[in-house]
From TrEMBL:
UniProt-recorded name of the protein: Cbb3-type cytochrome oxidase assembly protein CcoS
Pfam family, one: FixS
Sequence intervals crossing the membrane: 6-26
Record-linked InterPro entries: Cyt_oxidase_maturation_cbb3
NCBIfam families, alphabetized: ccoS
């Protein structure tokens, strides 16, 4: 029975350690997306045209 308590304690310590490492990585910007904003400007016109076409189609369907 003492083995279960020992394993449970070790697993909680490891989980807390991984959580703090994850928080440190987030704080340092490890998961920031640096690629998408530079590419988004290339496709922005297509997105604007699609949304304006969709809104025009929705207006004509409701009238």
């Amino acid at each position: 029975m003492s083995v279960i308590y020992m394993l449970l304690t070790i697993s909680i310590i490891v989980a807390v350690l991984f959580f703090f490492v994850f928080l440190a990585a987030v704080k340092k910007g490890q998961y920031d997306d640096a690629y998408t904003p530079s590419v988004r400007m290339l496709f922005e016109d297509e997105l604007v045209n699609e949304t304006s076409n969709n809104s025009n189609q929705n207006k004509s369907q409701t009238e």
